[in-house]
Known about the structure:
UDP-galactose 4-epimerase, domain 1; globular; NmrA-type_oxidoreductase; NAD(P)-bd_dom_sf; NAD(P)-bd_dom; SDR family oxidoreductase
Amino acid sequence: MKIAITGATGQLGRLVVEKLKEQIGAKDIIALVRNTEKAQSLGVEVRAFDYNQPTGLAAALEGIDRLLLISANEIGKRTAQHQSVIDAAKVAGVKFVAYTSLLRADESTLNLAEEHLATENLIKDSELEFTILRNGWYTENYTGSITGSLAAGAYIGSAAEGKIASASRADFADAAVAILTGEGHEGKTYELAGDQAYTLADLASEVSKQSGKNIPYHNLSEQEYSETLIKFGVPDAFAPMIASWDVAASRGDLYSDDKTLSQLIGHPTTPLSETVKTELAANS
């Protein structure tokens, strides 16, 4: 059984490849990537796969039994890109596709939800066997700001007291591997979130505890947060998106008490404290 992973050089994709190698060995894994040179260190077969070059996608999927479609990263272009992959999978005879969607994509107010839901519907209409993995937020989305917060003396955001039930990328990679190597998941949509929720004030408190510095959380308005991010060098077009995601968190869009993720992977999701510890160690 040949398993292929799109975006295999991305942060999630690399984890999935490594974990799959531990489960089934390298010979039946294919990394589908835009830049083949970046993928040589993965230790598996590599095939060129560019969402924006649809004519070559079916050939790259020849002989693939199961495909993990990790959502593309070009917001605004993803529905069309994913459509190209789905069409190619049908032509190539791929039997099954798993897709990394968004937590409660059918009701989320996050501006990311529309493309994810559109892709889910494309997959369901394709007649391919499928599983939808509605991934919640990666804890690293927030802990990646720790270094800047330590330098600034505060953690900022616009999530107010919204609870965030995130999990680590490794947890979501474990879920993808469980689907790709397991049985009985066809036709199912899984809502995946971390076991324990926290607020950004809780995150700031954990950073303070582990760093030995007083790092308070300062809640800003959506506009203030966006403008501050731009001052820190975040691109003008991206900063408002980040701020809007925080506001969505304040409305509960990143919260879930569903324990499907930990049940699926067979162990508790990674605690916030552990991800904070890893981030601090990496930048010490």
